[in-house]
Structure formats: structure tokens, C-alpha cells
Amino acid sequence: MAIPIRRHGVRGGRAPFDLRRTTFGFALVALVLAGGGMALRAAWRSAGRHPVAAVLVVGLLLAAALLVLRRRRRARRVAEAVTEAAYAIVDAGIAELDAAGEARARARPAPPEAADPVDYAELDPYAFEEAVAELCRRDGCADAEVVGGAGDLGADVLATTPDGRRLVVQCKRYGPGNRAGSQDLQRFGGTCYAVHGADIALVVSTGGFTEPALEYAEQCGILCYGPEELAAWSEDGAPPPWDATEEAPSSWPPGEEPTVPFSAP
């Protein structure tokens, strides 16, 4: 009696074990995991410096993982979890960028406020000399320096004007009721040209000048800046003193030009 033999279809049978195939599969999985781990590690290290690039790398890796796992039984749950993780990473990256932007905004220097007018009469004598030297430097006398002190022979500030002339300045920090007199101007006039070689001689007084002092200054070609002239110069309302000495073309006939005093710019 013949015994029928039941043949199993190819689909119903189990494929025979293949060592080479299994080894190759494990190697491929290990390679994918290693590459993904290295990419994640590099993205994690660069996240502090380049958060946007890190987010993009993580997004690409997550997309690749979704492609590999989409045919698995729990692909939907895994995809949802990965999507939530991706959103969390993106939100963290955006939050970091916002924080960095706020930090940069806080680090920006505030716009400069308009400087209050300087009360030169409230400065001590040395600070007043420094303030006058700073005005000279501001308007182009890069080498302006304070030289006042014992034995200065009347020169408190020395400088070279932008057009190459030598500027000699004497600073008188006087109170409102104490004006520079003719003796002050005479002492300065005796040294500013002969000793210091001035092309431009300037006296700046916070208390103003007496009439005899202004008359002497006019005769000797000395510029006199009182509190009004100093304020106008300091607040950019007037040109620097050395510009006041530049001769402009005259339309008056020779010998009939009007006299221009040196006490005003």
C-alpha cells in the first residue's frame, strides 16, 4: 500500500539557515548603527556651535529610521514617537536660537545719548587744560598735549593745526566774577611768539576778559575765547579758533578794510 507523501509548499516551509547571509545581515545592521551613532555624536557635539545644522542632521537620521522601520509591525507607534522626538529637538533648537538672539540683543551697546554741555568753570585747572586739549584733538590737532605746569612760560596746551600751523594755548580757569586782565595777556604775549614760536596764540578764560585785555590782544594778534566762545566751540556751534584766523578775500579797497577784533571767532 502506497503511503502518500505530503509536500509542503515553498511558502509554508522555513528557509534553511545560511551562515553567510546571517553574517552579512548582522554586519549591515552594525554598520548602520555605527554610522548613525557617529552622526548623532557629531551632531550632539556641534549642537552648541551650530544648532540649526544639528537639527537638520537629526532630522535626516530620523527620516532614515522611519524608512527602515515602516514595514515593521509597530511602525506607526515608532513613527509617532520619532516624530514627537523630532518636534522636541526642533523646538529645543528654536528655543536655543531665540535665546542666542536675545543674548546678542542684550549685548548690543545702547545708542549713545546726547552729551550734556560741559561746565568748564566747575573743572579744576588741570582738568580744564585737558578739556581744551581734547577739543583741539577733536577738531584735527592730533598731537595736542597739555604742557602746563611750573616753568611752562605761559603755554598750557601745544598743538599743530590740520594745515600745519603751531597753536599755543593758555588756559585760565577763572570764576564768573574773575576776568583775565591785561597783565595776564601781556605775560602770555611776551612768550607765545618769541619763546614758543606760535603761529596762532589763543587764551581761553572761563571768566571772560577785561576791556584792556581785549585791546592788548587785538594789538598783538592773540585770540581770546571767553565762556560764550568756548561754549559755541565745544558744542559744535562755531568753527575751531584757528579757522577764525584764515583770511578771506576782501571786497574793500586797499587801506579801507574794517578792523576785525580777535576776541570773537
Automatic annotation (TrEMBL):
Where in this chain does the record put each Restriction endonuclease type IV Mrr domain?
122-223
Question: Which Pfam families did the record assign?
Answer: Mrr_cat (PF04471)
Which controlled-vocabulary keywords does the entry list?
Initiation factor, Membrane, Protein biosynthesis, Transmembrane, Transmembrane helix
Segments passing through the bilayer: 21-44, 50-69
- Origin superkingdom: Bacteria
Q: Does the keyword Transmembrane apply?
A: yes
The record's annotation in Gene3D superfamilies points to:
3.40.1350.10
What name does this protein carry?
Translation initiation factor IF-2
This protein's species is Streptomyces nanshensis
